[in-house]
Amino acid sequence: MEEKGVKKEAAAAENAVDLKKIQRVRFLKDNNSILILVALLFVAFIGVDGFTGSWYNVALYSAEYGICCLGLALVMICGNIDLSVGYNAAFCGVMFVITFNHIYNSTGNSALGIIVGLIVALITGGVLGAFNGVIITKVGVSPLIATIATNYIYEGLVMNFAKTSFAPVNKDAITPIAKYQIFGLRWLTPMVIIFLLFVLGTYLWMHYTRYGNRLHIVGDNPEAAEYAGISVSKTAFTTFVLCGIMAGMTGFMMVAFSGAAIYTQGTTLGTFPISCVIIGGVKMTGGKGTAVHVLLGVLIMRTVSTMMSTMFWSTNRVNLVTGLLLIAVLIADRFTSTKSADE
Amino acid sequence: MSRGDIFIELDDIVKVFPGVRALDGVSIKIAEGKVHALCGENGAGKSTLIKVMTGVHARDGGDYRIDGKTVNFKSTKEAIDAGVSCVYQELSIAPQLDVAKNLFIGNLPMKGHIIDHKTLYEKSEEILKFLEMDISPHMIAGDLSVGQQQMIEIGRALTRNARLIIMDEPTSSLSEAETDTLFKVIKTLVEDRNMAIIYISHKLDEVMELADWITVIRDGKNIISKAKTDFTQAELVKNMIGRPLENLYMKEPAEITDTMLEVNHLTRDGVFDDISFKVRKGEVVGFFGLVGAGRSEIMRAIFGVDKYNSGEVILDGKKLKGGDPAKAIENGIGFCTEDRKKEGLALKISILSNMTLVKLKALSHGGVVDRVAQRRAADKYMKSISIKAPSVNQLVGNLSGGNQQKVVVAKWLLMDPKVLIVDEPTRGIDVGSKSEIYSILSDLAKQGMAIIVVSSEVEEIMGVCDKVITIAEGKKTGEMAITPELTREHILSCALGTETDFSAETDGEKKEEVKENG
């Protein structure tokens, strides 16, 4: 018996060393997007002529699309997917412009127009998100197929209201939200601050509130969640609504940034949020990732595109490189495993 | 309330599913500070009873009282709040969350509306210490061993102020050391915290060790319910299966002839080291060791799922190329894996499709499956190893554990393997099915198949094998013929690495010796 005890202790000591190592590997694996971003920025600043003058675009473009990436991440952490984010956002942009124009034309008050327009955009996004949520969590349609379908529907809605480009009557009242340089810094505009607030808010919500904490459990092991008294369908539904609301915010940002609701932006946005979310370290299968990962993912994607536009590369080359980068990240993820033999 | 007072009563509980009366008037009484064992074969109604108790199913009849008041739980949450917690047999760990969040799943400590992370991790440390687990609460649960994950599930019940913890087969994936710890924990909970435990296990010696009171149910009915001290193990088995079980292990002597599988100096760095052994036709060789000793890994390497760094595997005189399971199957190795649900079976498809999965190539002509031949092949084994199901079209997920295991075995038998490797063949299977699996293995050996049985139960190894090879920390520590003189303790100490014994290494011809001991 005594020998057995000694043996057990020795095994435990060995075990402890192993666990430390596992934790280290785990940390690197889960946060590899930091390394990617640092490496990219290093290459960009050292190797790309003109990047020192154009890097502020990383911040601006990240802020423009970033909020809907956060929303999508919530959906994906819960183990679902939303492919309708692009046209949801585009339609919310249209709704914003309609509301703004209406109020501006009747009252001449652009501040009121912006506020009411924004509220309408957020509500529109939330309703479209809830529509996704009902089809997926109540009816039980697979999220992939459901949101491909709703993306078509939302595209139809956009085309119904706006042929190609649809501008607010007084766009000068709106564009400062995207363009006004705070403290004269080119990268710091209200839009960037709004984006960062969303990142912070999402992070805190998921880290500190009981509801926000459910997302990981639901995405990781829905059965365990149910047995612990957490409603999987309610939680998933909430993420679709939040994703819709954040798409609404993005719709507003796009109008502020380009001065108009542009029909094709639904397509431009397309699968971009998915790439950002995944490259940042959120798992396609759910259960993993934070708002910070999404921020990193957006920054990585935007650094790549800014780098290449600084070098005057054409869009098709940019897309090629972006795709390859995404695959490289996924491959790297496959090969850094914390378990050696059994995976 | 004090120890021994009855606080939960179930009277005449009835639960009807379409076509089945799963519970047909079961009554039990649970007392504080006592371990109440629930015994019965798979399908006897134990799981249904638990699900009624924990609010997963609503009962169709009878009365369920806690502290004298009738309760009607509509969700597991309500049952948990009332003090009834369950550690399910199927792991319900969230593998990407850390240990602390798994412990407090659905029940995070709060300060107002904000999660109290400090308390969360402090309390988790306490629980881990109580469970004698030397891990950090920040570890990601998926990085832990299956045994550790099981302990986390048990810890989860402790976070919920449970008055009753139901444990469904808690030791099925624990090592011997972990089982010891669990027993200690259970005794502390019962004696010091006055908790009640319902303990469900197929391992009857565990039941006899732990329980204060034993209830046997069969076909949804109470068969017998009395104090442990009034039971003998034989009586227990008799009541469970409804007939006396003469001999659980029906090993008949088989003729052991030429070497079929030869493994020489097989090494995988850091996992196992210099493993050599031979298995002959008609021979059943047991591999015994603690969970994590490397037994399954050796088998995976032989089969080709894992790679190895050096050494060789020779099958029927032919050297196998490593790392190619398809080649191994073609050459005649069958491998019934340890985790049948994860690695061995597709639960959502039929018995027929599962059985003929590896055989499909031989059953088709030019890429088109010959449905008639497929059906004929499956029917043959449905009968010959008596899989209990209405038809071969039944979904495997609807079968009992024992019958699922038989489907896995049948799948490989269809391939006519020369060597059959079975890893933990009876994990989570009731006594009746166990005995059937053993007799299938014995029959196969008689037909001249070479069989390797990996097991963590010494009794099983001693009952079904001709010889045993012990593995400790990736090294071979013994190779012994199973003889009446061989003791359980001797095998165990070899598996712990404190002794070695290579008395039965088959480099020469020692047939007679081995054959006599079947």
Your description of this structure?
The complex is a heterodimer of chains A (343) and B (518). Chain A has 16 helices and 2 strands. By secondary structure, chain A is an all-alpha fold. Chain B has 518 residues and is α/β, with parallel strands linked by helices. Chain B folds into 3 domains: 236 residues, P-loop containing nucleotide triphosphate hydrolases (Rossmann fold, 3-Layer(aba) Sandwich), CATH 3.40.50.300; 173 residues, P-loop containing nucleotide triphosphate hydrolases (Rossmann fold, 3-Layer(aba) Sandwich); 72 residues, no CATH class. Helix content of chain B is 33%, strand content 26%. In chain B, β4 and β5 form a beta hairpin. The C terminus of chain B is likely disordered. At the A-B interface, α1, α10 and α11 of A face α2 and β8 of B.
Outline the secondary-structure elements:
The complex is a heterodimer of chains A (343) and B (518).
Chain A: H1 2-30, H2 32-47, H3 51-54, H4 56-77, H5 85-107, H6 110-139, H7 143-161, E1 165-166, H8 176-179, H9 190-208, H10 210-220, H11 222-227, H12 232-258, E2 261-262, H13 265-269, H14 272-280, H15 291-310, H16 315-335
Antiparallel strand pairs in A: 1-2
Helix pairs in contact in A: 2-15, 4-9, 4-12, 4-14, 4-15, 5-6, 5-7, 5-12, 6-7, 6-12, 9-10, 9-15, 10-12, 14-15, 15-16
Chain B: E1 6-17, E2 20-31, E3 35-39, H1 46-53, E4 61-66, E5 69-70, H2 76-81, E6 84-87, H3 99-103, E7 110-111, E8 114-115, H4 117-130, H5 146-158, E9 164-168, H6 176-192, E10 196-200, H7 204-210, E11 213-218, E12 221-227, H8 233-241, E13 259-268, E14 272-280, E15 284-288, H9 295-303, E16 310-315, E17 318-320, H10 325-331, E18 333-336, H11 340-344, H12 351-355, E19 364-365, E20 368-369, H13 371-384, H14 401-413, E21 419-423, H15 431-446, E22 450-455, H16 458-464, E23 467-472, E24 475-481, H17 488-495, H18 511-516
Parallel strand pairs in B: 3-10, 3-11, 6-9, 9-10, 15-22, 15-23, 18-21, 21-22
Antiparallel strand pairs in B: 1-2, 1-4, 4-5, 7-8, 11-12, 13-14, 13-16, 16-17, 19-20, 23-24
